[in-house]
Amino acid sequence: xxxxxxxxxxxxxxxxxxxxxxxxxxxxxxxxxxxxxxxxxxxxxxxxxxxxxxxxxxxxxxxxxxxxxxxxxxxxxxxxxxxxxxxxxxxxxxxxxxxxxxxxxxxxxxxxxxxxxxxxxxxxxxxxxxxxxxxxxxxxxxxxxxxxxxxxxxxxxxxxxxxxxxxxxxxxxxxxxxxxxxxxxxxxxxxxxxxxxxxxxxxxxxxxxxxxxxxxxxxxxxxxxxxxxxxxxxxxxxxxxxxxxxxxxxxxxxxxxxxxxxxxxxxxxxxxxxxxxxxxxxxxxxxxxxxxxxxxxxxx
Length: 300
Prior knowledge:
Elements: H1 2-22, E1 28-31, E2 60-62, E3 70-82, E4 90-105, E5 109-123, E6 138-145, E7 148-151, H2 162-167, E8 180-182, E9 186-197, E10 200-218, E11 221-240, E12 243-260, E13 266-281, E14 284-298
Antiparallel strand pairs: 1-7, 1-9, 2-8, 3-4, 3-14, 4-5, 5-6, 6-7, 9-10, 10-11, 11-12, 12-13, 13-14
């Protein structure tokens, strides 16, 4: 009986960690790195929208930010497999959200405001789904300064509820493009997340590198095409139901971003990621493999 309970805990914990790692339910601290990130392994070419052509002619573009509200739809689908035992279990999670937000950029800070209109998470029977049902739409405000993003949480909310998970989807769409870019421009940044599942605290370091590929068009909008490589490292420990839990993992992936040619607003992000996670509960360790696809699109 204890073994079956622990196995259930492994899979449920892993499923929760996958959802939270992809949309951190905490303050997100983003730090621009001047040093080169660790060498990334070879990656497949990021997927673009069907029919999207890219002009790689050498050009230079000046980005003029806008504070207009932008409406987005996001979906993250993840497949999970235990790989440490024969006849390993499989499960999946799907996160979906619709939200609106605007950015007001100044020299040393950026104001963020908007609302989450719809949010849902679905999971297989092994992982199970969240039981809380917050009321949407939910308005929010925040700011970005000194390479940190802060979003204000409702005063009556408790840590790591569905409400905070929904709110934390926003930073993944806050793309602050350099104010001048050209074909071949490259830059790097790193983002650290602190997420939680009950009493388990997990720290994630996400290192990204970008390359501007050229000019394109999407849904009638003149746009710029960007390829992204990323690598994430996670560690955590805590306790749950009298079990001591620790975890460590590494995820890598590629993404294709399309941004507005004039304003730098994110128009589309399509990302593919894979990674391994080790979870140890009361001295028993298991290994998990995940593959995920994330799609964010502006819909206005």
